[in-house]
Amino acid sequence: ENKNLFRSHYTYFDEKLRKKFEMREYVINHFNEAIEKNWIHPYYQQIVRTVTGEVCDAEALARWIDPVRGMISPAEFIEVLEDARLIHLADLHILDCVLADLQKSLDDDLGAIPVSINLSRYDFELCDIVDEIIRRVDRAGVPHELLNMEITESVTGIEEDYVKEQIRRFHEAGFEVWMDDFGSGYSSLHVLQHFDFDVIKFDMAFMKNFNLDDEDQVVLSSLMQMVTRLGIDTVAEGVESRQQIRFLKEIGCDKIQGYYFSKPTSSEDLNHKYKKGDGIPFENPESKDYID
Ligand code: C2E
Ligand code: MG
Ligand code: MG
Ligand code: MG
């Protein structure tokens, strides 16, 4: 019987691996079509000011809505596109969509809020990403202060002076540069000290492990205090509970983002919610009175 057990185990992994490779192939083969037909486009998730509860920014998160396969998540296609050296084309396409959405809300006078877009470390290697972004934003006539650039610490795997220079160019053009996923993996304090980030986003892992009286809280509050004292703004990601919000408020986290307020949604849904005019475009009806 043991033999059978092993066999079924292997079959399971074979099957998983086979599916993964199959998806990989699908993504690469259909990438051009997905861009042309806007199967790839941004969803938006609001970022909220901790003290007041007002929406202050939004993050653009790529979605691949496939006519055959339905929703394909970033976890399934971002890495594939990075490996295939196509990721810059996806990121610039997302930027174009975001610019179109921003133009619409500027025209509709809905009050456009700044949008963060996610950049891959490979964007910096595959093209002059700063120049590409500036050209597209200017062509769209969107004010530069309406866009923030999110980059993960993995960019520091590229030559340090080169990355610093790109951050400087973003700043010179009037874009904020945010560090994404701080505290995941191999974060170093060196990066905090020597790279000129405007905002640090604390990784969701901090919220996942969240318990009262936990060591994680000591680590989180100390890091948050340090970042704040360095003059950098802070965002907590993956916020799902009122208890977490209370703690984040206590330790002086500037902004929060998470399912507690809303999941990423399409721009149509978002605009619809704004148009209802209640001023609280949150999914969670309780979230408007979270400050207690
Ligand atoms: P990220 O930039 O750190 O984005 C946050 C992720 O956390 C998003 O996953 C979001 O949907 C999810 N999230 C937000 N709030 C909560 C919460 O309260 N609980 C939980 N469990 N999750 C929450 P998503 O959209 O699947 O994106 C995953 C990652 O894929 C992103 O992580 C980012 O690294 C990458 N990505 C997404 N869009 C793009 C893009 O346009 N370009 C590039 N290069 N990468 C992207
Ligand atoms: Mg991000
Ligand atoms: Mg993140
Ligand atoms: Mg600052």
UniProtKB/TrEMBL annotation:
Domain EAL: 24-278
Domain of life (superkingdom): Bacteria
Shown part of the complete sequence: 299 to 590 of 726
Protein name in the entry: GGDEF domain-containing protein
